[in-house]
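ok here's Pur operon repressor:
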Amino acid sequence: MKKLKRSGRLVDMTHFLLQHPHEIVSLTHFSERYQAAKSSISEDLVIIKDMFEEEGYGALVTIPGASGGVKFMPKMNKQEAEQLIGELVQALNKQERILPGGYLYMMDLLGNPKLMHKVGRLFAAVLADKEIDAVMTVATKGIPLAYAVGHYLGVPVSIVRRDHRITEGSMVSINYASGSSDRIQTMTLARRSLAPGSNVFIVDDFMKAGGTLRGMVDLLEEFEADLVGIGVLVESAEVSERLVDDYLSLTKLTNVNVREKVIDVTEGNILTKLETS
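and the structure:
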């Protein structure tokens, strides 16, 4: 890259950090990239750090030592998080979203890249102090959410499927009980998609009894991987028994009546977690 003035460096450096969350970047990297002294790079980083914190984008953490540098950790302040949850609650509280079985139509929300990126950033903000190696979800509706979370955590995504695909090589399969239908189903994950011993955050778009999520938790044991947490876009409150206990939810479906077309969606528990994170 050609030598840039400070204004150009600040723009390019900010863009670089935003695109590489949770990645340690050495001062040497920036110094060579911009053909600038490390003292100048340090001054630039102070400006960016102040801007990130003032605007609520996140924190710029300094990592000491020979292998150190700086690391951008995405954050979201309470006001922005409340606004996002409010938008989701308003969008979901429409009777035309009600589907048979007490589910909700959400593909328009899951297919909205800007919205999913905000959701991913919120999850990443709550998980900022957790050591996470991968995000896991089950195909297909959870995929957009998982990629958004994975982007802001700076980790890959592992996709669990309910069918075997020869293009994914050797697979690990387990049977699990669907909490909503009381049926035994199968889920599979390619052996190469998750390294043994990984710390994994599981996400899904909708949780009723939590049978699918429980199945993914059990699947982690086959990879000798550890569960860091579970996140869902919508949880249903109308269940007699939950198969998972500790989870983050953005919204909660507290009442749905398919026959009378009645629906009530409120905020989930993630705002409380954000306050204490």
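+1. The two ends are 39 Å apart (CA to CA).
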